[in-house]
Write a structure and sequence with these properties.
The structure holds 2 protein chains of 2 kinds. Helix content of chain A is 21%, strand content 22%. By secondary structure, chain A is α/β, with parallel strands linked by helices. In chain A, strands 1, 2, 6, 7, 8, 9, 19 and 20 form an 8-stranded mixed beta sheet that branches. In chain A, strands 5, 10, 11, 13, 14, 15 and 18 form a 7-stranded antiparallel beta sheet that branches. By secondary structure, chain B is mainly alpha-helical. Helices cover 60% and strands 3% of the residues of chain B. Chain B has 8 helices and 1 strand. The termini of chain B are far apart. The N terminus of chain B is likely disordered. Classes of the chains: A alpha/beta, B mainly alpha. At the A-B interface, α7, β12 and α10 of A face α4, α6, α7, α8 and β1 of B. β12 of chain A pairs antiparallel with β1 of chain B.
Chain lengths: 528, 183
């Protein structure tokens, strides 16, 4: 293997896959360095494995998970079928302050977390891009919707995203494939909300990177419902299913698994990066790879960790840290607020096919009027569904009629709304290098200091209120609210720590994702 | 029985950890192995507890025109979960709850749950079903058995394949299919 390339891409997940595709298609000899192992869809994908094929029928190898994946297994997808797509927590340590947990969920393999991701894809609008400037929070984005819209279109056309055109200013429409229809219960719920909330609270089809028709050589979804375990028909978007094969087709791609990037090498003569230091995942020997440009796509916290570990006389606190903002302004979303209730209609209707995701209620708080308790807003993910045999454990009774009901009948339509709220950027939510902790490859590990503030917690309270209002408007029975006390991180939407801005004194990257301190280093993942 | 015959009796497929020095030792080893093999599905529940769990699982999901809980080895699944999956505290609470069933059976006029009449067993379980939220004693054990029986039954191969006819491939999604319960 030659050790000099035109471009290095660190990470092979969603953003690394895109970087690899674009760079190779533009003729650059590109190496993708992936920390984890290779994945062969024919062998590793598990979406059609039946519960009786697993020792604990899908309940998970609990004692093993408690020992090796106590953090990863907080994520529901880290189960008996798919836990191999999540890291070993003992090999990948990090620290948090007493009483401030952070659930850092990671996938280290070719494909990264794009194998297990939630597949919901939304455009931002100027309500989002202008929010910091309008509210005096953080720094202003140097970009606006009009700058991004052509790129959204470019990406969406390749990815294949199903969705319904709604014409909302706060959630712009995209290049949609036709969506799956709402089911009978959701359709009625949509109509009721349109009447009772005058269109302000709207049930629309989830905007989802799952194909409803054959698209660019990938097959339409067969509705097995187990996307997080892989997909042999390549029907959902992942780097493994889509961008990496496109990059491979150019002949310009080198993909090296078991390559744990330690840091970026800075050349003071050129004032640019000359390459990266890599620890071989198996032999643990360190080597260097050189290139003209470096793309950091290792997921927000890992990309920033690499920069924080990139120490030189010129940048003694980490490359990219001249502003002092590297590592700061860590965000996630807040989830775990909402409600569920039984809908009074469509009792003579059922579904055929297991949709992985169903409906979305776009943000309605702080859109047209100001909410007194919090800034920004949230959307609801949700669905209406009827339980089958799995309602048996909570259903009263036993015996022949109990059994017959579980086989031949269904529960009522249960409508659920689960809020996902925006988190504000705050300097005091940060990551830094823990001076006493290294990972299994000897690389200094992170200390993560992050907490939800009142703004997020008030938003979560409001999710419970508005979800309940919508269910009441539908005449739902047996409404159960929930408000979970999750650690940040668990939404797995971690972003920030290398913010984009107009001014090198207050930001880490410019509007083209170039690190101010070394303009041939690009951060193109959630870090910026 | 001669040593050679003993080894033959145990079967060539069995890899013996060592060849016993004499016939008596070999016969004892054979007996131990036989017992171990016979016991393989049950490592936590003793024979009495097996009978109790089996009876309750079969009362929850009896054999009808489709298999019952025992047919698809739900009791063995419960024992597997108790042995390899449950925490020590959970296992102890479960076994204490089983014991409590017999204690409570005394109040209904029998030394053991298994010896109650069929009608009284039904009444007993109906009572426990209502008390499941209390999460203690016999009601707790019933709650666990019921949960694991439903789960173990419906995730078993015969039920997934032949009763539920679980599909993995659909030619598109339809959310508006007419439905009439079959009960």
């Amino acid at each position: 293997m030659a050790d000099t390339y035109d471009a290095i891409v660190v990470g092979s997940g969603i953003s690394g896959g895109w970087a690899a595709k674009e760079l190779t298609e533009h003729g650059l000899k590109t190496i993708v360095l992936e920390a984890g192992r290779p994945i062969d869809p024919a062998i590793d994908y598990r979406e059609h494995v039946m519960p009786f094929e697993k020792r604990y029928r899908g309940m998970g190898n609990r004692h093993q998970q408690e020992r090796y994946q106590p953090i990863q297994s907080q994520c529901g997808a880290c189960d008996e079928y798919a836990s191999k797509f999540f890291v070993n927590d003992l090999d990948n340590p990090y620290s948090t302050p007493e009483g401030k947990p952070f659930s850092w969920i990671r996938g280290r393999q070719v494909g990264g977390k794009s194998i297990m991701w939630g597949r919901c894809v939304f455009r931002w609008s100027d309500l989002d891009y202008e929010a910091n400037a309008r509210e005096g929070v953080g720094v202003d984005w140097p970009i606006r919707y009009k700058d991004m819209a052509p790129w959204w279109s470019y990406v969406e056309k390749f990815v294949g995203i199903q969705g319904r055109h709604e014409g909302l200013a706060q959630l712009p429409d995209g290049e949609f494939l036709k969506p799956w229809p709402l089911n009978a219960a959701e359709q009625k719920a949509r109509e009721v909300l349109l009447t009772k909330f005058n269109g302000e609270r709207l049930i629309t089809n989830m905007r989802l990177a799952v194909l409803t028709e054959d698209h660019l050589g990938r097959q339409k979804c067969h509705l097995c419902g187990n996307c997080y375990r892989g997909c042999v028909t390549l029907s959902y978007f992942s780097s493994l299913n889509s961008t990496l094969p496109a990059a491979r087709k150019t002949g310009n791609l080198t993909l090296r698994p078991f390559s744990v990037v330690h840091s970026v090498i800075y050349d003071p003569k050129t004032k640019k990066a000359s390459g990266v230091r890599v620890v071989d995942g198996n032999t643990k020997e360190m080597f260097e790879v050189k290139a003209k440009v470096v793309f950091l796509c290792a997921a927000a916290l890992e990309s920033t960790r690499i920069l924080l570990n990139s120490l030189s006389p010129e940048f003694p606190t980490g490359l990219g840290n001249s502003s002092g903002e590297l590592g700061h302004n860590l965000m996630d979303h807040i989830m775990g607020g909402g409600a569920t209730g039984e809908l009074p209609w469509a009792k003579d209707r059922r579904e055929l096919g297991r949709r992985p995701d169903a409906i979305y209620v776009p943000r309605f708080r702080n859109v047209k009027s100001k909410h007194p308790d919090f800034q920004r807003g949230y959307g609801f993910e949700g669905r209406a569904e009827r339980a089958g045999w799995d309602r048996g454990a909570s259903m009263p009774g036993f015996g022949a009629s109990f059994k017959k009901s579980l086989i031949g009948d269904l529960g009522p339509w249960e409508m659920s709304f689960d809020g996902f709220g925006e988190m504000l950027p705050r300097h005091e939510n940060y990551i830094s290098i823990d001076p006493h902790l290294v990972d299994a490859w000897g690389i200094p590990a992170l200390h993560i200091n992050c907490k939800y503030s009142d703004n997020e917690l008030k938003m979560q309270e409001d999710m419970v209120v508005t979800a309940t209002e919508m269910l009441e408007a539908m005449g739902a029975k047996n409404i159960r609210t929930f408000k979970e006390n999750n650690a940040p991180g668990l939404v797995i939407h971690e972003t920030g720590t290398a913010r984009m801005g107009r001014d090198p004194k207050t930001s880490v990257v410019n509007m083209h994702n170039q690190v101010w301190d070394a303009p041939n280093v690009f951060m193109t993942d959630g870090a910026c | 029985m001669q040593r050679r015959e003993v080894v033959k009796f145990l079967g060539a497929a069995l890899a013996l950890p060592f060849i016993p020095r004499n016939a008596e030792a070999a016969i004892k080893l054979g007996a131990d192995l036989h017992r171990r093999l016979a016991d393989v599905p049950f490592r936590t529940l003793n024979p009495d507890q097996q009978k109790l769990v089996t009876m309750i699982a079969e009362m929850i999901i009896p054999r009808t025109d489709t298999p019952g809980a025992t047919d698809v080895k739900v009791p063995e699944f419960i024992d597997l979960i108790l042995t390899e999956w449950a925490s020590d505290d959970e296992r102890n609470a479960f076994l204490a709850g089983l014991n409590d069933m017999d204690v409570q059976a005394v109040a209904m006029g029998s030394p053991r749950f298994l010896e109650l009449t069929e009608v009284k067993r039904g009444e007993f379980l109906t009572g426990l079903d209502a008390k499941r939220p209390q999460k203690i004693g016999a009601a707790h054990a019933f709650d666990r058995i019921k949960t694991l029986t439903v789960y173990g039954y419906f995730t078993s191969e015969p039920v997934q394949v032949d009763v539920l006819e679980t599909q993995m491939f659909f030619n598109g999604y339809d959310g508006n299919v007419p439905f009439t319960p079959r009960v």
